[in-house]
Amino acid sequence: MKPCDKITRSLSAGADPAGPELAPHLAACERCADWAESITALDAAWSATRPAEPPAQLFDQIWSRIDAQPTRLPFPAGPSRAALRRLAAAASILVGLGLAWLWGLSRANPRQPDPRTSPPLATTPAVAYQFEAEPGETLFLHITPDGRVEADIRDPATTSETITVAAEFEILNFMESQAADAL
Amino acid sequence: MPETDADVATAPDDDQLLLQVRRGDRSAREELFRRHFGVAYRVAHRLLGHDHDALDAVQDGFLKAVAHLAEFDRRCEFRTWLLRIVTNAALDLGRRRRRRPTLSLDDRSALDPDNAQPSSADVVGPPVDPALNLHRSDLRRQLDAALATLSPATRATFVLFAEAELSYKEIAACQRVPIGTVMSRLHYARLKLQELLKQTTLDA
After folding, report:
1. What integer is the mean pLDDT of B90-113?
2. Cβ contact A45–B139 (<8 Å)
């Protein structure tokens, strides 16, 4: 990425144009300075058109309807349902991958392996995928023809659509967080 | 009545309120949602452009959040979790209904003849930029029209950033996308919005 692209993206993400990292570049680069100026103008327009705070009685109105609904208490006693769900999801993933691995092994070696020469199963490195799922979500695993594992997480509380979450997003988020913190 | 420093100092935070809710304190639950009502409403209003629709979206979102409060495991801030639900409720509502012309609470005289009062949209303060020579209501309409050209995901990302002031890390967690995706969406949203605002200036 070119330096100017990096600068404009940083500004778009809320970086301070007067900060020590950006100010010298903005002083020397007309294009980036223009971008910073247009961001300031947009932010000013956004602030000026901020919706009015809703009157308190509007909250009272909607809350009276919500409060009449039967509810469950948060954080039930005992092992949390979220933990149990995550454990179940992890177990099912491992079982599924184990079965797939055994199936692949049996396809590769249709004959019964010689126990004297084949490696014991316990020494075979385990493959595990970890998925972050909210409580209440349902995790669907799908193994594509080319062997990739895709996870679909459906969250009935927040959306009527299926959200596809690639496992690598968690790793990318972590790496980007570290990189952003290091800047 | 404005809050005093003592009120602020003694007000329980969201985590403390959630503990009280766990003990069955219904007033704590109400307070938990009341304190985030304003920002939830503003986010929904930005996404839908109409106060009645925004209220419907907030009500839908709050209903879902209350129903699933038992499953909130505090892996993110309660506010972030709640705004995620309200944002999705607003996007769902927006898909079901056609976007209506912008109407703010200041314009409620148009909705309710018994509540007739002068609209403040055109009279509060000076225009944000004299060069634009637009009144706030016109500016808001232009911004809403520009927002409507964005995809729902990009629109929601920008609104959560600009209106709810969530960090891009919080938005990434909220939308379950990489931080890089959030930054790209913010950049693209700004590009489009700024282009359209500039065009509006030229046309004016």
Report:
1. 59
2. yes
Chain A residues touching residue B179 (CB < 8 angstroms): 172-173, 176-177, 180
pLDDT digits (tens, 9 = 90+) for B107-164: 443 333 333 333 333 333 344 454 554 567 888 888 888 898 899 999 999 999 999 9
The three-point CA angle A122-A126-A129 to 5° equals 155
What are the chain A neighbours of B176 within 8 Å (beta carbons)?
A: 132, 153, 163, 165, 169
Over pLDDT 70: what percentage of chain B?
A: 75
Q: How far is B6 from chain A (nearest CA, A)?
A: 22
- How many structural domains compose chain B? 2
Least confident stretch, A13-17, A22-26, B90-94, B176-180: A13-17
Q: How far apart are CA B74 and CA A133, in angstroms?
A: 13
pTM over 0.80: no
Residues paired with residue A143 on neighbouring β-strands, in sequence order: A149
- Using only C-alpha atoms, what is the Rg of chain A? 26
Task: Write out the DSSP string of A16-44.
Answer: -TTSTTTHHHHHH-HHHHHHHHHHHHHHH
Q: Is B68 domain-assigned?
A: yes
Q: Based on the domain organization, do B16 and B97 belong to the same domain?
A: yes
Domain boundaries, chain A: 3-47, 81-113+127-183
The answer as to whether B109 is a domain residue is no
Could you tell me the CATH number of the domain that includes residue B71?
Answer: 1.10.1740.10
Is B71 in Cβ contact with A81 (below 8 Å)? Answer: yes
**Set of chain A residues whose Cβ sits within 8 Å of the Cβ of B136:** 48-49
B26 is in which domain, residue-wise? 12-103
In the predicted model, what is the mean pLDDT of residues A49-77?
78
- The residue among B38, B70, B103 that closes a domain is B103
List the one residue out of B198, B194, B187 whose CA is nearest residue B158: B187
Q: For residues B32 and B82, state if they share a domain.
A: yes
Q: Do B51 and A51 touch (CB under 8 A)?
A: yes
Which of B33, B128, B194 lies closest to A63 in CB terms?
B33
Q: Do A39 and B172 touch (CB under 8 A)?
A: no
